[in-house]
Prior knowledge:
β1 and β2 form a beta hairpin. Among the domains are: 3-313, Distorted Sandwich (Beta-galactosidase, Chain A, domain 5), CATH 2.70.98; 630-727, Golgi alpha-mannosidase II (Immunoglobulin-like). The radius of gyration is 27 Å and the shape is globular. It has twelve helices and 38 strands. The chain is of the alpha+beta class. (2R,3S,4R,5S)-2-(hydroxymethyl)piperidine-3,4,5-triol binds at residues 329, 359-360, 404, 471, 473, 519, 521-522, 538, 541.
Amino acid sequence: xxxxxxxxxxxxxxxxxxxxxxxxxxxxxxxxxxxxxxxxxxxxxxxxxxxxxxxxxxxxxxxxxxxxxxxxxxxxxxxxxxxxxxxxxxxxxxxxxxxxxxxxxxxxxxxxxxxxxxxxxxxxxxxxxxxxxxxxxxxxxxxxxxxxxxxxxxxxxxxxxxxxxxxxxxxxxxxxxxxxxxxxxxxxxxxxxxxxxxxxxxxxxxxxxxxxxxxxxxxxxxxxxxxxxxxxxxxxxxxxxxxxxxxxxxxxxxxxxxxxxxxxxxxxxxxxxxxxxxxxxxxxxxxxxxxxxxxxxxxxxxxxxxxxxxxxxxxxxxxxxxxxxxxxxxxxxxxxxxxxxxxxxxxxxxxxxxxxxxxxxxxxxxxxxxxxxxxxxxxxxxxxxxxxxxxxxxxxxxxxxxxxxxxxxxxxxxxxxxxxxxxxxxxxxxxxxxxxxxxxxxxxxxxxxxxxxxxxxxxxxxxxxxxxxxxxxxxxxxxxxxxxxxxxxxxxxxxxxxxxxxxxxxxxxxxxxxxxxxxxxxxxxxxxxxxxxxxxxxxxxxxxxxxxxxxxxxxxxxxxxxxxxxxxxxxxxxxxxxxxxxxxxxxxxxxxxxxxxxxxxxxxxxxxxxxxxxxxxxxxxxxxxxxxxxxxxxxxxxxxxxxxxxxxxxxxxxxxxxxxxxxxxxxxxxxxxxxxxxxxxxxxxxxxxxxxxxxxxxxxxxxxxxxxxxxxxxxxxxxxxxxxxxxx
Length: 728
Ligand code: DGJ
């Protein structure tokens, strides 16, 4: 049992393998927070009582929501910190007040209506706390789901309007967590298109600090992942509290330190660009947010997250091994036709690739990025005998076939737009702004989603597609829905995502053997909800080695190699082709390998080199996919873009723990005269074993690897090295 209730002390305790979470019912109605952290720790005392703190007459001055650690803080309640729920009632005010009513503990978990959520795992239980508001008649249900083996607890809430008047949710946060101290650093991931997931670590200040997206997408700019870490936290030591949000639209990660020195963390939909009206009889479910605690630094935190995503989030892997794809985009852009695709396929299979992916440009009048989105039929000029016939011909060589789509979008220059100009996201009376010459379809309107299902069905049924790359290339400005009434316009983006997930689910049900790769101009929706509806994600449009080192390192902080799609790409300096090919490959095999180059224009020695790369990748694929990641050198902590890490085999990778270890060292810039020496400590090597580096034949004892391999950084720029230690 991971969840228990002490009815005498009125204390709930939720336990995972290494962590403990506790809260208490006070004065029969308030839910206060007691502890989150290392299992078996002593709980800290109560917050210090201060003056200027509203209290309740029947309880007296000794208890105040102002100062206490609260489990789900509500606006206007006398808790003056940032709050988790703000509900406007029919009297016009937002004073939000729910009291504990009852609770239940259920085995497993319930699904969340319309929104992806984690799957129950071995030992999963859910605590549901029911709270009521007598004024509005609303019922608030707080859900705590525990994933004991993963050290993860997830939270979300549902709100049922059982009253007679409508109410409006004006702020909705899924996690509210009070920590009794504030000596933290905050780690977050920020970026831009082509520059995703830079790691930022800053001291938490007294006051309020937020990272968020108002872009209608989880975004390249800020990622929903966030961690609070003790000052001494590094890869192996220190306290780490990490959070993430299972949603792809707007989000808010809010941290507030009060002058008493306590820290509040809120993770959820936020309050800007979100609102939700509940008529009598209606209900609302918030997306799920997750949290983990590691007493052993950042490395353990990442491994908790990685395993959780692999086991509980990513839906399926239709193939035994991930296809090594050859994607047409960077090779051809819009200049595709049957011949080029068939030739790509015939050539790709000779060199060990498994799939050719036809990227943008195959449908409607899509000859450039100014037309065609919305018209999901194969361009008859490019495919005169239709898509099915063409795909059969591509696949004759034995290669698999993938295709690109961007369902949420529409170009004004499209048949669909001409037929339904009212089907676009927009705010009445305002100009609709374009981005990449496109608008968004109003996925809050079920008719739009239904139309797309029929349109894709007509085009894809009977076509032997193995893979879909699902793109999303603009953010949401003028966030309104012509379908929704005036008093529901704040719901447009949230409901847009209900439509998006509906379409994803339809694709997965209709084409169960097709693998979906997610993409949003690279990694612009690199979030847990997208991971729950696709097998992997295109990490970034930037495939330049210099940047990839950082982008992938940052991505791996919160998300596993298992979802990280990495291509070795075209633009390489010709006189240094082989070296860059080697470097890009060593970078790419931190995740799931693919290629994005013009195979027909390449010399045989280059293609033969690629064949060898794929053979090597296949020999370590399971180790990379299911292995545990240990980071040694961060490219964010040196100026040369030096990055070193290793994957250690686990039972899931089909071998014994630490039977094989793949160590990677990457350097964008060489030593250039400096004496830079690292000691790569392979702590996970079995100290009783002997290992042989199968790439050099050199033997090491496990103890030697534990103590570390001395590595002197060479002068070479854009250079990488691999070691594959195998238990002898
Ligand atoms: C953006 C994606 O990230 C690219 O890989 C490519 O698919 C283009 N869109 C196509 O328009």
